[in-house]
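Design job #97: recover the sequence.
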């Protein structure tokens, strides 16, 4: 039945999320590159790239009632249909405004199917396997996001080819979605609302350090995917190398994700976050010095992606260390909003910096953002009284 665990269903769900990761990984740098070639300013280009994550942010509060009303399978199918339709329409139009609107709808579709797939897995996975299955889910999304930029090389075969190949892959995914069973989540809305009536200021007060990494990861991921093609083209880097470099950042994060998680268990997640952001800050500051050598730049993207590519998952894990279970649903929702906000700000701020200061400013901006977190994490303190108060509130409620 739909509310029991099924390994067959799980495999289909991770296939779906890997394909949606691939679509995001391709569309962000591909459209940025094409708009750069059309002479669009870097600030407007970055704002257009942010439209996808604006769609995710707008759709996020709507996902729960939609999935509850129409069920998992239909929600996933609708999300895929919205994304596929937008991908098909991209090559039929040119211009930043229509592409920004289509990007927004890709974000809406992705948000719906991500929510449905995540909830379906977490609601049905055996308790002793839940962490492993969510990790596999995240790995598959990251794998798809890392493969996506390589599709930019299909431009050599024609402007329409990358979009049509992506549309075909999404169509095949839709077929596999038909093999899923149907059902709706078992949610008692009234009880859930009562349980989640926690005060956000308490969450921020005690878990501020854990809530910052999702913003940073959103900034890093989208600024690089959405702005680096502009910077790279202006520095004379080929489209093929730009696609490889963006993918290398994701490959590094996948390779280092498990080792960093294990290391965080041993030395503390706050410590590993400080170390990762410090190394990432240094790496970002060095990037402009390597732009003349793509091989060194590739190694730098791989290593920097490795140390900062797990910020989101490490931040969520650190939340569980800091907060009682009652606060975690609201805290995770806040973390998701932070990621969306960072993803919207990243390409726009990066584009403005490239336009008015120069390409190197993109990397210095990301370096300063990471260094600022290091300072905050070192000096920010939560009083023992505040921590005790939250723990008592959790017990009494």
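Job complete. Output follows.
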């Amino acid at each position: 039945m739909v509310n029991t665990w099924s390994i067959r269903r799980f495999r289909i769900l991770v296939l779906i999320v890997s394909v949606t990761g691939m679509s995001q990984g391709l569309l962000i740098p591909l459209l940025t590159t094409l708009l750069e070639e059309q002479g669009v300013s870097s600030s407007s280009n970055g704002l257009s790239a942010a439209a996808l994550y604006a769609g995710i942010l707008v759709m996020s509060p709507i996902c729960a009632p939609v999935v509850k009303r129409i069920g998992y399978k239909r929600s996933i199918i609708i999300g895929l249909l919205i994304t596929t339709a937008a991908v098909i329409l991209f090559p039929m139009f040119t211009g930043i405004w229509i592409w920004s609107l289509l990007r927004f709808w890709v974000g809406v579709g992705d948000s719906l199917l991500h929510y449905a797939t995540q909830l379906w897995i977490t609601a049905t996975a055996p308790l002793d396997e839940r962490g492993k299955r969510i990790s596999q889910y995240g790995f598959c999304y990251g794998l798809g996001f890392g493969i996506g930029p390589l599709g930019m090389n299909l431009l050599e075969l024609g402007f329409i080819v990358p979009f049509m190949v992506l549309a075909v892959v999404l169509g095949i995914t839709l077929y596999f979605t038909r093999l899923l069973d149907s059902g709706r989540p078992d949610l008692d809305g009234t009880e859930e609302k009562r349980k989640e009536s926690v005060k956000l200021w308490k969450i921020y007060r005690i878990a501020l350090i854990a809530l910052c990494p999702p913003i940073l990861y959103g900034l890093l991921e989208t600024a690089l995917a959405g702005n680096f093609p502009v910077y790279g083209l202006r520095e004379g880097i080929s489209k093929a190398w730009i696609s490889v470099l963006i993918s290398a950042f994701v490959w590094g994060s996948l390779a280092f994700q498990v080792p960093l998680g294990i290391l965080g268990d041993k030395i503390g997640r706050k410590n590993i976050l400080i170390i990762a952001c410090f190394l990432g800050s240094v790496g970002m500051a060095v990037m402009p010095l390597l732009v003349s050598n793509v091989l060194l730049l590739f190694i730098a993207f791989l290593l920097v992606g490795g140390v900062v590519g797990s910020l989101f998952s490490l931040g969520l894990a650190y939340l569980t260390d800091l907060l009682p279970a009652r606060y975690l649903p609201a805290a995770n929702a806040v973390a998701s909003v932070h990621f969306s906000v960072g993803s919207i700000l990243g390409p726009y701020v990066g584009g403005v910096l490239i336009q008015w200061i120069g390409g190197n400013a993109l990397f210095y901006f990301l370096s300063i953002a990471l260094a600022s977190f290091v300072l905050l994490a070192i000096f920010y303190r939560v009083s023992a009284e505040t921590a005790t108060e939250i723990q008592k509130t959790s017990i009494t409620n």
